[in-house]
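Lecture notes, unit on protein representations.

Consider one protein chain, 94 amino acids long.
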Amino acid sequence: MNLLENEGEYRHYTFLREERYQFQGLRNENYVEAELKVTLLKMKEDHPIFRVEMPLYKQSNSEGTYQWIGDLHELRERIALSVHLMKMGNWVKF
């Protein structure tokens, strides 16, 4: 796989999570839906550099245990990261 040919290309991913729990009579439910856009920016020293954007983030419960979610909204605009790829046969494992 030659990632250099894919520079500037992006993929969309959807993240869904549902949590429900009960502890000593207290119930809490939370549903999360997020869209991620992952763009290959460049290769640096044989390591890909990606930009991860989160254009959509919805959560059903933003109180109590889940108050920290406000911090995620501050970070969600643009996150750059590098991933070390390990080749396994013809597949690339992240």
